[in-house]
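New to this. Comment on this protein:
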Amino acid sequence: MTPEIVVFGSMNMDLVVRVARAPRGGETLHGLSFFTNPGGKGANQAVACARQGARVAMVGCVGEDDFGKTLRNALAADGIAVAHVRAAEASTGVAVVMVDAAGENRITIVPGANDLLKADPEALAGQFLLLQCEVPMAEVVLAARAMRAKGATVVMNPAPVCRLPDELWSLIDILVMNEIEAAELAGRPVADPAGAAAAAYSLRRRGPSTAIVTLGSQGVVVADDSGCRHFPALAVQVVDTTAAGDTFIGALCAARVAGHSMDAAVMRGIQAATLCVTRAGAQASIPRLRELEDVQQVASPSALACP
C-alpha cells in the first residue's frame, strides 16, 4: 500500500545521560542515569506520524551492526514500512544526549551511515514528504525535487539549523522550525511571538506557502495566506524536551493527511508535543493518537500583525 507520508532522513541510536546540571569545561560530574533509545530526527518524525494514525514509509540508512538492526526493528514495530532503510558498511548514527534537571537537552550527533543516504526515486512516493538537515543536503534536494514532481506536499524542518540551497526553498510547501532555526534563517532575532511572526513572514517570500515557528512555552506562530496567528502553549511540568519538535511535526502532518485544517493540525501538534515533554527519551516519549484525548484542548489562535 502506498504510504501517505514518506520520511527521508536520519536514524540514530540515542545514548542518553541524565544529569543534575551540565558540566562546565574541564569538569567531571556524576550522572544520574543512562539508557539507549531509538532516535534521529527522521526516524522520530516517522514514528510521530505513524502513532498519530498515518501510513508511513521511512527512507534511511543504518550500519550493519546491532544498533542498525534495533532501529529498523523499532520502526517496523510501529507499523512503518522499512523496505527502503538500507544497511551500509558504516557505523549506525549515534546521538549523545545530556538531559539536565530542567528537562533541557544538549545533543552531539555522530552521523555515521546517515551520511551515505541516497535519494532513490523508487522509494519516494506518497502524499507528504518530510525532510530535515541530518542527512546530505544534496540528497535532500533530490528527494524534494522527485516528490514535488509527483504532486506531493514537501515539509522541511531545517534542523539542526543549516543553510538551505536556493533550489530547495522553491520546493518547500511547509517550513517548520524552532526559534533558533527561524532566527538563523531569517537573520533577525526571534524571542517572542511578534518576532516569530516577522521571521516566518519574511521566510515565506523565499518559497514556502506556510512557515511555522515553535516557541516552546510561548506556543506556536503560523504565517500563511490567511495571515499570522499565535497559538498558546499548554502548561505542563517538563521532564525532557527531546523529540518534542519531531512530535509536533509528525502530529501536524498526520492531521493534514487526514484532512484537518492547518489550524486544527497545529493544535493537535501542540497537544502531542505537550504530552511528549512530560516523558523521558526520544521515540519512547512520542504519544499515540488515542492518548491525546486526555490532553487539554488548545485555545483558539489569536491574530498577529504580519510585517
